[in-house]
C-alpha cells in the first residue's frame, strides 16, 4: 500500500497540528472558539517524499481507469450516467497524469485551481472529481502547510495537497483485465517443419538434384547411402 514518508522517517497517519485549542491553553481557557491559523488541522509541515511513477506505468493506469469507468458505468442503475470515477474524476485524473505528474520523482502537488484550468472544468467539478477518485481508491492525498514568520509572529500558510496515484490493486471494485494467453505453436509466427532429405529428393525433377537433396543432411544415413548409389549410377552412365 502506498504511504507518504517524511524526512524524519515517519510514515502512515498524521497527528493533528495544535490549531484548535492552542490559544485557549496559552490563555488558560477551557476551549478555544476558533483555530489559531486558517489551515486544515490535519495538514503536515514535514516534507513529503514521493514515489517515482514511470510514464509507461502512469499511462497504463490511465487506460485502466477508463476501463474501470466503463465497467462501472455499464453496471450502474438505470438513470445514473457516471460510473465509479465519473466524467469529472476522469478529467481530473487525466490532468494529474499528463499535465502535473513528475514521472521521475513522482512529485504531484498542483492546486485545485491549476487542475481546473488544465482539465477545463470548474473548481467545484474538480472537488467532486477528487472525491470520486479518493472514494474509489484511485487517488490519495495529504494536506500540506508551511511555517512563516510575519512581523515576528509565527503563522502557518496552507499549501496545495500532495497527491499520490495508487496502483490498480487498491482500486475498490476494480477487476483487472485478464492477460492474453501466449500464442501456440500452430498460430501466427510458428515456423513449419522443414521437409526431410527424402521428401526433397522425391520432389526434385532431375537426377543431379535428387542426389544433392539426399546429401543435405549429414546425420541421415539412409539418405547418404542413396546419394552414393545415385552418384555411382550417374558415373557409370556418364
Could you explain how this protein is built, in words?
The protein is an alpha+beta fold. Among the domains are: 47-170, Orthogonal Bundle (Arc Repressor Mutant, subunit A); 197-237, no CATH class. It has 8 helices and 2 strands, in the order αααααββααα. It has helices at 22-27, 55-74, 86-100, 112-119, 123-135, 197-203, 207-214, 221-237, and strands spanning 139-150, 153-165. The protein has a two-stranded antiparallel sheet with strand order 1-2. A hairpin with a 2-residue loop joins β1 (139-150) and β2 (153-165). α4 (112-119) crosses α5 (123-135). The longest helix is centred in the first third of the chain and has 20 residues, at 55-74. Mean pLDDT is 82; it is low at 5-34.
Brief overview, please?
With 238 residues, the protein is α+β, with helices and mostly antiparallel strands. Helix content is 39%, strand content 11%. It is elongated.
